[in-house]
C-alpha cells in the first residue's frame, strides 16, 4: 500500500521503531501498536474538482472536520464535571471555523494528538471515509463527466473505498438498521453521553451531518451546469436558519439526499455509518467510568461491528424514502425535529430487546416509563423527568429485574445472543422489503426555484 503523506510515512516509521525497541527490550509482542500505513486516494480526471469549483463549500466542510477532530481530545482530557463550560466554549470556537473556514482539509490527528496515540485506528477509519467524501464530491462536481456516467464513476470510487484498506476500516454499505444491531451499544454505560451532556456541541455536529448530504443533493437537483447556484442556496440556508435553529437529531442520508441515495445507496449508508461512529466515539470518550485501554477496546469493537463485512452490499437498498422531494435549499420543520428515521431505528431495536431483557414481561406502567426514558435520552440535553446518565442506568431504576446479557455493559465485549438474534430478525425482514428504486440518470436535471417538500 502506498503512503498518502510524508507525515503518515514519518508516523509509520516511528511506530515501527517503537515496536522494534519494545521487542528488543523484552517488552513482549507489540500487538498494541496500531497500523499507521495510509492508502493514496484514487486517481481520476475529476480529482480536486470540488475544491476548485465549489471552494467555499469545500472550506466549510474542512471547518467542520476541524471540530470533528478537536472534540476527541477535549472529551478525553477535560474533567467531566466541567462539561457544561466545555460545551459552551467549544461551540463558540467551532462556529468561528464555519464563519471563517480554513483553506485546506485537516486530518483527524491534527487537533487530537492524545486520542491519535491512544486509538489511531479510529482516525484511520474517519479519514479514510472523508477521502470517500472527497472522491464522490469531485465526481459530481466535474463537468466533463456526463450526467449519465456519474453513477459508474461513483461506483468505481465505492469499490476502491471498500477494498483498498485494512479489513474493518471501511464503513459498511449496509443501512444502519443492520449495523446498529451488530454494534449492540444501547445498554453500554456511555450510550448517548455526548448528546446528553454536550448538547451544543452535539447539535453543531447535527448541522455538519445535515450539510454533507445537503451538498450532494444540491448537485443532484442542479446537474452539471447549475451547481454553483444550488450549493450557494445550501450555504445561505445553513447560516440563515440551520445554525441558529439546529436539527434535534442526526439526520440520515435517505432523509436529506434522497436522490443521491437512490443513485449510490452504498455511499449513502457509508456516510450514515461514519456519522453514527462519530457520535458513539464522542460518547465513549465523554464517559469517565473506563480507562483509556477500556475505551480503546470498545472503540475497536464498534469500528469492527459497523464496518464493511462481505455480503453487506446485498442490503444497500433496504431502506425507505421518507422525503423523496426534499430540496436542500430549504429547512422545513421535519428536518429540525428530534423525531425522524434515526429515532425509529433505535425504538425498533429497543422493542426487540425488551423481551430478551425482561422474559417475564413488563407492566404497562413500567413499559410506558421505559419508552418515555428512551425518548428523553435520545434528545439533546437532560429534560425534566429524565434520569441523567445511560439508558441502562435509567431502566434498572424504573424497571428492576432486567436480565443482563454477557457483554452488554462491559468494554470491548458484545452481547452476542442479543445482537445475533436482532440481526437475524432484521435480515428476515429485509428479505420481504422492496429495494429502494434506482434513480434515472439518463435525463440531466436543471435547477428550478426552491420548494419546500411537504413530506
UniProtKB/TrEMBL annotation:
InterPro entries: TAT_signal (IPR006311). Keywords: Plasmid, Signal. The keyword Signal applies. Residues 1-27 form the signal peptide. This is Uncharacterized protein. It comes from Methylobacterium aquaticum.
